[in-house]
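look at this:
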Amino acid sequence: VLLRQVLEKIEGHSFTYLKYSYELLGNDGIFLEKNGKEIYSLQLTDLSKYEKDDIEHVGWYYLPVEYGAPVWLEPYHNENVDTYMISYVYPIYYNGEFFCLYGVDLDLNELLLKVRGMKVNDSGYSILYDKAGNPLGKIPPEVEGHQDEFVTASEKLKNGMTLTAYVPKDEIYAMRKSPAYRASSVVYTLLLICFFFFVLMSIGSKETDEQVDKKRSWRFVVGVGIVVILLIQGVFLVIMKGGIGSDNAVSIEQKGGYNTDYKAVSLADREPYSYIETGGRADGYFPEVANALANDVMANIDVGVVEKRIALNMVKNGEADIIMGLDSGTAKDNPELIYTDPVVSDYVCIYGKRQVDGIMDILKSNVAYVAGDEYPDVYGILENASEYPTYNAAVAAVANDTCDFLVGLKPPADLVLKDARYSSIKEVYVLVESQMCMAVNKDHEMLARSLNAAIADIQTENILTQLHAKWLENRNVRRTLPEIIKEHSLFYEITTLILVILIIIYQVLILRAREDKMFLLSETDSLTGIYNRRGGERRIRQLLRQRTPGAFILMDVDKFKTINDTFGHLVGDKVLTAIGECLKQTFRNEDVCMRLGGDEYVVYIAGITQESNSRDIINRFFNELQAIDIPEITDRQISVSAGAVLWSGEKETDFLSLYALADKGTYESKNHVGNFVTFIQEE
């Protein structure tokens, strides 16, 4: 039971097992597999059939026993279950003797698919590397051989692998060169110029009629200019939103293409499953479900709404990855596709003014149905039924007694029956359950497996129930955007003016903020939070060019290699982090504190040229070091050896020259007990 509970919490294809000591209990144990939402019991590998060094068959058992501690195994292909995986195995001991081990295996192919789907800025990439630094999976051709064109950020994972993000340098530093940024900056600048122009034109006491007329002329010209600018921005917004008031199906090409990980298409005029809202926006159950799936598979899914024939061709031809809204009963009609598990379940119901007496009563009656509905006709009701283009038309046919009953899907029928004119028509019979699913090209089996795992993880039935209730409560007759504008013209004009100005300000601020944030991250040491070498050197060189006098201090952690070798690198990292905190506590914001690399730190105290003052500040820093408390280190005190150079600003110098002098002082300080500083005279 506990093993099953573990698998239920793990996303995607996975395994778990409990294997007792082979020497004590032979091949006894438990082995479970989760595939989709199903959990299966499997036969454990017979260890007697393989040598101990056969990693692909029995490495999962012998390696953890050999290490004697929990271990992440290197990625390998498990021949027993034919899966490329990574494993975490925990050996358990009783009275010092190995008793059993517990392990979890993750499908590495699914993990790599999620890594590929991770979005990094607009056009970046994510790559997973093993412990040896070898890439897992194929490196994108845009990155391979062009690593110097990307800014990278890496995160060391607990299993020893490294996740690295690659962002093009051009993307980071080209924000201010983009047409949108420039256009917004120009418009915003013109608005500010016009504002100050109005203020200046309003200043003055006595004005002649000629001056007043000239001022009015200028105001008129500038006013017309502002109106033109706002009109251009407004048209631009409307174009980017996809047009005004179109209720027709919109293809992907008409929407201007995608910039997402997966392209999905859903069927047009399938309200409430998928339909085009005013302004060309895709709406309905499936766009909402796509958002939930996207969060689970860690990839963006952009949904376009097109006709069924076009949607099928797009997926078959590779123009789209996923088609949404197909009935699972129609899988036999499209052998080129792989159908997923059902995403939402709904019901096909019979609606009429009277109760029905079984299915034969329906077959003998005049039945209406809506063209384009897709569900299994298990009783052959539709063979002699009357076809109508919309649910409104079909319900009206029942209301005026042209037909006896309507057979249709519950959500769209319920929407039409909200109309008080149709209060006499009720749901009288539940015909069949209709299961709506997704499909992908048969060449994308891995994508289908990931979608099935995501479908199993999200509770789509709950999503359907919540969306149906919300949709039915709030849905009304759709009006086009021009009709809404005509009805609320004054409100539209005022809010459009405010909206355009706010968007311009927002664009400028957010673009500058993003660029500043990326620049700051590139100059910050991720471990200590102070400047890294690049940022610290840039700031110190700037102060030196400005002839700002100060104290240049180089510090080296005493016996740091011994700490690493004795207590491990994690404890070493804690020491480096603690020293960084001491630097931030001691020195001012205007001082430059940087981690030069390894266990070396550099500080530049701006404006300090007296040795006595410098020594007092450094001693305060030494006192902070003595207060460092790291639980793993109890038998030694954290200390540094420092060398300092006082630069008056009179003679020209550079970073490397000051570093060389301070390094001499650091070397001399090593001959003393820890937390000692040696001052070197400026040359």
